[in-house]
Amino acid sequence: MLKAVILIGGPQKGTRFRPLSFEVPKPLFPVAGVPMIQHHIEACAQVPGMQEILLIGFYQPDEALTRFLEAAQQEFHLPVRYLQEFAPLGTGGGLYHFRDQILAGGPEAFFVLNADVCSDFPLSAMLDAHRHQPHPFLLLGTTANRTQSLNYGCIVENPQTHEVLHYVEKPSTFVSDVINCGIYLFSPEALKPLGDVFQRNQQDGQLEDSSGLWRGAGTIRLEQDVFSALAGQGQIYVYLTEGIWSQIKSAGSALYASRLYLGQYQLTHPERLAKHTPGGPRIRGNVYIHPTAKVAPSAVLGPNVSIGEGVTVGEGVRLRESIVLHGATLQEHTCVLHSIVGWGSTVGRWARVEGTPNDPNPNDPRAHMDSESLFKDGKLLPAITILGCRVRIPAEVLILNSIVLPHKELSRSFTNQIIL
Ligand SMILES: Nc1nc2c(ncn2[C@@H]2O[C@H](COP(=O)(O)OP(=O)(O)O[C@H]3O[C@H](CO)[C@@H](O)[C@H](O)[C@@H]3O)[C@@H](O)[C@H]2O)c(=O)[nH]1
Fold it and tell me: What is the mean predicted confidence (pLDDT) over 139-155?
């Protein structure tokens, strides 16, 4: 019997995801037409023997989360429960705090997945590796280029045995090009070292982080407190993947992840991809259209377009590399490229909403999305355009490389601006 835990964080997290995380908790933001963590749940539900999926975070349970859990349980015929931390407990504290719930029923092992990653989740392959040679911790690893590796947990492995010999979380200088994907398979014994860290922290009281922040004694950082501490002791192993993988930290990376998942749908969910039908809109490449959306036949969509519930797309609209969220309206002949159009927003006729993609270098197979900061040298960097919820864009204007906060009613064109 197996279980899975998804670490969903909480409201103070996901700051790079604003203004989109104002409206829905980041783990529920739709990527390729379904909530971000539905991809995780689908992958877990496919592993034979999966008994229960637990979401651990510090969000107050709200209507959206409750509805999502109910729908997921029905669809996957599995208990999917939310366990709320009383305070942010870090990536390991919640696992230890809720250990009784995780171990209830005696699972052979449990997966732990960061919510903010996009992957093809090679969970069955990890399970096979674990069953072949059981160890307390199995980490999924992938490669990154030298510069970008510094943004992740870096793993030095024994190439023959795949034992993790050395682990450094977000090092300041190059350590290894093998990085931690935030996808793990733990055996029940893995909770013992977490308990040791917990006991030590209780004795030491409040601790100061390397960043100078105080963290409560219940906090456990899986990466520094456990992986770094136990590396080289025959307890942690890495399973390397060449499959798709990306972090989802910002809106730009959500758009990139959407492209990766839409590509995956060719194999996993061909029914979710829109097809060109006589009298329907022109479809180019991978496009998701929610069944309730109304799309005019002369619109041209794709590649990498995802259209949410109740969206209206008018005649002559051109949409490419974009996500249009629930209830938005694109009036006739608008052009939306490399953008996210927020819930209930309206883009007026002949308006152009355009962003600049920040995708990984296609000539570097080890490249990932840059952990985009919005500014460099005091200047706003060109990035995808984001319209927050219920924004109104008038007819015949250009909105380029801009972030428009919710409920704004614009009256003219804007370029390279954050519109507050
Ligand atoms: N329940 C809970 N979840 C948390 C907490 N803090 C973070 N998380 C969740 O844990 C995951 C990791 O979050 P971060 O702490 O922001 O770490 P990171 O910068 O994403 O880096 C981690 O993931 C990388 C891969 O994406 C790894 O490379 C890196 O080593 C590390 O594990 C996210 O899904 C986040 O929601 C917490 O206090 N409680």
Answer: 96
Buried b (16+ CB within 10 A) or exposed e, 238-277: bbbbeebbbbbbbbbbbbbbbbbbbbbbeeebeebbbeee
**CB of 56 shorter than 6 A to ligand 1:** yes
Dist. CA 115–CA 43, nearest whole Å: 13
Distance (Å, rounded) from C-alpha 352 to C-alpha 348?
9
- What number is the average pLDDT over the span 365-371? 83
The model's pTM: 0.95
Q: What is the DSSP letter of 203?
A: H
- At 381, the pLDDT band (50, 70, 90 cuts) reads confident
Two tokens, residue 153: 């947990």
Atom number, ligand 1, closest to the C-alpha of residue 152 = 28
**And the tokens for 338?**
């490399």
Domains annotated for the chain, with CATH where assigned, are 2-247 (3.90.550.10), 275-419 (2.160.10.10)
Q: In the prediction, which pLDDT does 142 show? A: 98
Q: What are the residues whose beta carbons fall under 8 Å from the beta carbon of 228, sequence distance 6 or more?
A: 167, 168, 169
| Three-state secondary-structure class, residue 151 | coil
Question: Which of 5, 6, 7 to mutate for ligand 1's pocket (most ligand atoms within 8 Å of CB)?
Answer: 7
Give me ligand 1 centre to Cα 92, in Å. Answer: 10
Distance, in Å, from the CA atom of 261 to the CA atom of 288, rounded to the nearest integer, reads: 10
- DSSP strand pairing (214-215 vs 207-208): antiparallel
Q: What residues are paired with 123 via a beta bridge?
A: none
**Is 94's C-beta closer than 6 angstroms to any atom of ligand 1?**
yes
Q: What is the mean pLDDT of residues 192-202?
A: 93
pLDDT at 403: 94
DSSP label of 78: S
Q: Note the pLDDT of residue 13.
A: 64
Least Cα distance to 13 among 36, 42, 45 occurs for 36
> How far is ligand 1, taken at its centre, from the CA of residue 120, in Å?
18
